[in-house]
């Protein structure tokens, strides 16, 4: 008489919730200030070096409050207040770069901004100022207004 085959259940190992290393929250009870990785990304943030501080339990586990959720569908929760901006906005980077370039290519004496870097460390001013001649107009920006968007190629 054949023994009835034992049904193998594909289930993730059950862990009592008290053994969980991180606090776990259901979607409805998730405290303010904790967000998932995806929500961080949508805000343009990254964890900024801190690891997940809690677990967002999967839907399945909403019915098993006594068990720890270790399903792949669980989410990691991060603290918004520890998160950092993902990257410096491109425009701010351009401004910083342009300020640096302007400092190196503007003569402190005639206030002309040239298309090239000046020997400010050695000479302290542009060649025309130093040697007393009028610079050729194609070597500096015609307008004295700050150049807003010119990146070094
Ligand atoms: Zn679960
Ligand atoms: Zn000059």
Description of the molecule:
The chain is of the alpha+beta class and 153 residues long. It has two domains: 15-85, no CATH class; 90-139, no CATH class. It has helices at residues 37-42, 90-105, 127-131; strands at 15-16, 24-25, 34-36, 45-46, 54-56, 67-68, 75-79, 84-85. The strands form three sheets. The chain has a four-stranded mixed beta sheet. It has a two-stranded antiparallel ribbon with strand order 1-6. The radius of gyration is 31 Å and the shape is rod-shaped. The protein starts with 14 loop residues before the first strand and ends in a 22-residue tail after the last helix. The mean pLDDT is 84. Residues 57-58, 60-61, 69, 71, 74 line the site of one zinc ion.
Characteristics:
single chain; 153 residues; alpha+beta; 2 domains; four-stranded mixed β-sheet; two-stranded antiparallel ribbon; 8 strands; 18% helix; binds zinc ion; QRL_CxxC_CxxC
A few lines on this structure:
Helix content is about 20%, strand content about 15%. With about 150 residues, the chain is an alpha+beta fold.
Secondary structure blueprint with pairings:
Elements: E1 15-16, E2 24-25, E3 34-36, H1 37-42, E4 45-46, E5 54-56, E6 67-68, E7 75-79, E8 84-85, H2 90-105, H3 127-131
Parallel strand pairs: 2-5
Antiparallel strand pairs: 1-6, 3-7, 4-8, 5-7
Protein name: RRQRL motif-containing zinc-binding protein
Biased composition (Basic residues): 1-12
InterPro entries: QRL_CxxC_CxxC
